[in-house]
Amino acid sequence: MSNEVKIDKFGFREYDARWVYEKDINKAGIKDLGKGFGSQIIRHTKKNNPRVIVGHDYRSYSEEIKSSLKEGLKSTGCNVDDIGLSLSPMVYFAQFNLESDAVAMVTASHNENGWTGVKMGIKKGLTHAPEEMSELKDITLSREFIEGQGNEKIIKDFDKIYKKDLIGKNKLKKKIKAVVACGNGTAGIFAPDILKGIGCEVIELDCNLDWTFPKYNPNPEDLKMLHEISKSVKQHNADIGFGFDGDGDRVGVIDNKGNEIFSDKIGLLIARNLSLSHNNSKFIVDVKSTGLYSNDEILNKNQCKTIYWKTGHSHIKRKVYTDKALAGFEKSGHFFFNKPLGYGYDDGINSAIQVCHLLDNKDKKMYEIINELPKTYQSPTMAPYCKDGEKYEVVKDMVSEITKIKDNKTKIDNQEIIDVLTVNGVRFTLEDGSWGLIRASSNKPSLVIVTESPISDDRKIKIFKFIDDLLQKTGRVGEYDQKI
Questions:
Q1: What pTM was computed for the model?
Q2: Is the pLDDT score of 308 beyond 70?
Q3: What CATH number has the domain spanning 9-155?
């Protein structure tokens, strides 16, 4: 192994770290990352030999990366508990179950082969937010490492403890037939077992482990994956279809007729179901999510409150934790369940279990349950190009522009703006509940635009045109990845 350290600074993202292996980071770079994280853990925990849970996903190179990471951690004085082949939520669960001080999961989630990364956390149930990532980046790149001597312990069969925990408290009353698709990713050796364990009849789809991902990437937003699940649901006359991502923290859902259900709508259905037995609860959703949460009759009847918050699994997870919310839902498919339903972190299998409980509680098919929600006309997430160095400035301009439009009572398609939310970019709501969002992407040189109307497709499009018109006037926005 070359001793020369290669570690691209742009690999430190907002809430995790990702690189193309050997092009952007080498083994020596991974070892330095371990030293940086180990030093950070020691500073935060004030312990000389903190315990760190480490796991890895099923990519051909993940184990050798984990090896280098562990070397780095041990050189600072950290004691490593290696739980082997894991899902991210299994590593998070281990921190609670084994009472450890921190976690490091080697995974690039649903990214294409060649990518690697590490999801890290110190406080139980939480992963690094931008502040911690920035601190880690500074320690690692400046090589300000603490020196010490740590040890290593291999924890065997921890997967059995994780599976047993989810199965034990989630038995179903009736048999639900579920297609379980894992895209040949690591969830393949977890999701079918757990869902069978709670009482589902499981039809496995691409659940054998194959790190070449021969058919499609394990990504529940991937249309190829969703199409395969849909086909299988119809072929087997299944009640539901689930698609899990590479490290098992996200899930995509297909109804019994083979239709994809947007994750924010699934979140609302789960929230409605939970509100029946947990009234006065709080739910956190990200700003890209449907406006239906705001005035939902069932949530209102059960005196539940929904808070719209910053997009990003680390942000939503933290907000669920600080506000003691019962659950949080992100449009990308990250769902978070607090006690008594979970430990606050995102677990795609626990999310699928909550959907099974929804079906278990109702004498209706998934297609009928989703149709009980008021219809809305929702745009896809659209991303016009905007330079990294300019995107936040553009969003700031949009905030003042839209605030001015609200104050002047200027109408958009005959509707006044009645509310402006600026917690993450700017989300403005019209009198009839229609809304538009402009925010900066966390990990790409682009903006993020979403619009929705409970009234008509035409109004949804008019809101988009209004936003696009404002953006074009800035002269700092380029091509869209997709448009309505």
A1: 0.90
A2: yes
A3: 3.40.120.10
